Amino acid sequence: MTVQEFKINATKKLALTSKSPALDVEIFLTFCLRLTKTQILMQRDTQIEPEKLSWLESAVERRSHGLPVAYITGHKEFYGYDFFVTPDVLIPKPDTEILVERATQAIAKKIAVGDGRPLSVCDMFTGSGCIALSVVKNLLENFSVPKERLPNFTLADISENALKIAQKNQNALFNASDGLPRQHFSFIRSNLFDAIAPAFDVILANPPYVPAALAQELLKDGRSEPILALDGDVTADGRHSTSGDGLEVIRNFLPQAKNHLAPHGMIFMEAGEYNAEEAAKIARKLGFKTRIHKDLEGQLRVLELE
């Protein structure tokens, strides 16, 4: 089968289930054949090798049942960087990039006006590590923060498998030649702050905030994202809250985060566009000053707390 024949057949099949069948097929081809989009066009009459054709057909079949492209290829771009992903972690979303942007600006400012003491940053619910690791890359590449002035980052998650993915991404994005001291990254398995003692200058968080009923509904399309990272109605002891508003995890997280925040510390937390204002009310009751930032689509998305 030629590249063009596969492209036509696969696009037709995915048109029944995918909102972007042509794009999905293009990603599979560029990933599997290791060709650019232009090369795909130029080699449209090239025969696909049997092993690669087998992978491509399997990829289309899995995609037709709802599995996201990122889980099939094992990769997802976020904030311009490539991250490994599996169904053990949420797929990084563009909406979350505003959290990275705002947090990086605040951390760079703290470093600039600080006394030279290394800052400490916690990325709770780290998942793939995309937030914390993108902040570090951003500090180095776009804010020209010297390596010796970088904060120490603690990446925490309740899922051991998620932490393994985060560590894999850290190793891929920062190799030995980067010269980053080992202590810049710590990975801790913890239910919220149960296993975490120190206070932090900045806390980053993308907690589960989807109402339980909606989370279950979302997973019916076969996307296979971890319910643990979506369902915001889970209590600290693992039971289900009756609130049904997706804010139970946030209700437990914010008081603990406040107790683990250093003087003049800040929190950057993602919330759903439907519950960001309610999350801000919870924060204000705890004494935080709040500001809500909109995402790239103009939806309320990130809470900045001081």
Would you kindly provide a written description of the structure presented here, covering whatever features stand out?
- This protein has about 300 residues and is of the alpha/beta class.
- The protein is built from eleven helices and nine strands.
- The chain has a seven-stranded mixed β-sheet, sandwiched between helices. The chain has a two-stranded antiparallel ribbon with strand order 1-2.
- Helix 8 links the parallel strand 4 and strand 5.
- Helix 1 packs antiparallel against helix 2.
- The radius of gyration is 21 Å and the shape is globular.
- The protein starts with a helix and ends with a strand.
- The mean pLDDT is about 95.
